[in-house]
Amino acid sequence: MGNRVIIQKLADKCVANNRISPSLYQTYNVKRGLRNEDGSGVLVGLTEISTVIGFEKRDEDIHPVEGQLEYRGVNIKDIVNGLTTEDRFGFEEVAYLLLFGELPTKSELKEFGKYFAHERHLPGNFVRDIILTFRTPDVMNSLARSVLALYSVDENPDDTSLPNLVRQAISLIAKFPVITAYAYHARQHKFIGESLFIHQPLDELSTAENFLHMLRPDGKFTKLEAQVLDIMLILHADHGGGNNSTFTTRVVSSSGTDTYSAISAAIGSLKGPLHGGANKSVMSMMEDMKNNVHPWNNKAKLKDHLVKIIKGEAADKSGKVYGFGHAVYTRSDPRAILLKEFAIKLAKQKKREKELVLYLAMEELVPEVFGEIKGSKKVISPNVDFFSGFVYDCLGIPTEVYTPLFAVARIAGWMAHRIEELMVSPRIIRPAYKNVTVHREYVSLSSRKRGQVSAKIEAKKDIKKV
Ligand code: MLT
């Protein structure tokens, strides 16, 4: 029997033996996906790091409201407006705010910036031994592997005392953009046959500027490009304790393990298409739109194609409209509103207004068509992923680094939550699973007959149907 046949036979057993009737979840009041029946998240913790408001609960009902996001109590809109007015880069300052709970003064920011710049530099031979060996087409995989490798060059990797956590946090936030840019070039060199570019980070540049400098073969970028990337990083830096990767960080951290183990797990979570990988799916869906709807400003044709997408007849045929709806936000995702402003500015500068028209039409049509087809009154709006792919594309940033750039930003939030988890929560996170199988007697190997075992499986299936 070939390996494929063996594997298929074993996979069939998984199908036969992993059937839990959906009704049992109701019987035992299981909060699937840690969600309440109305779709809101089950309350599992308290945090002071960020506030995500997307609805109001009144009389046990969900009432849609405009979305709000605050970092340590400061509205994200005010942070972005402040930085734009003061014409400054702000990702480092936002990381400081998330980690240490307050905006830095001028001198604190200067001192932090100097230390941060120093921490960008990777240990000797790290690029050769870790990033350029065992190259993978997936930059998230490279990033996770590099994080685990950093454990072995840390002289004090397992120490969970506060000063050590702070040191590790700054080191990882500073190094993530460098690893991402190099891992991307390593990928392009090995799998696409491009030249290998390893530009050293420059101490005088901000995180956003440095990333563009390291990513682009000529190291050049415009001020607007760096400013927009800085805003992207700020908007993705944190999103409460409940998003999948941050919750992963908190769950893994609660076992008392080291920073590198917790963060590599968070990277694994963010890589998933239902989490950080969603902006890539938006781009594929929009590509399908661009190829099938002509001209792009014809709303009737656009609507027809959208109907096909929702009915599972077009794009990836999943019936999903990527970039719309959110676990918390209803009427609006504040990050999408801010991003839209920058998408408009960039589209003008890059002469991509025609494409932007398509995005703006989708923004208007999706909630309406979704309601019509699904017969649902659920309020949905574009989320942060809807405009982020377009913005990255305008910046000439390749799809392969969209999700890694999310990690470059979110590492700030992950480390802030890891510190908070270890400081305020003394217990390992340990929820419960109810076993719903039937008891079976052990049968010795010589007495096992397939029919006999199957009979037990049938019995089990009947019980699950109850
Ligand atoms: C995030 O920023 O993490 C995403 O919007 C997903 C979430 O909040 O659940």
What would you say this structure looks like, in words?
By secondary structure, this protein is mainly alpha-helical. The chain folds into two domains: 68-275 and 402-424, Citrate Synthase, domain 1 (Orthogonal Bundle), CATH 1.10.580; 278-394, Cytochrome p450-Terp, domain 2 (Orthogonal Bundle). It is built from 19 helices and three strands. It has a three-stranded antiparallel beta sheet with strand order 1-2-3. A hairpin with a 2-residue loop joins strand 2 (61-71) and strand 3. Helix 5 (106-119) crosses helix 8 (162-192) and helix 13 packs across helix 17 (384-394). Bound molecules: D-malate (MLT). D-malate binds next to loops.
Q: What keywords describe this structure?
A:
466 residues, disordered C terminus, 3 strands, three-stranded antiparallel sheet, mainly alpha, Citrate Synthase, domain 1, 2 domains, Cytochrome p450-Terp, domain 2, binds D-malate
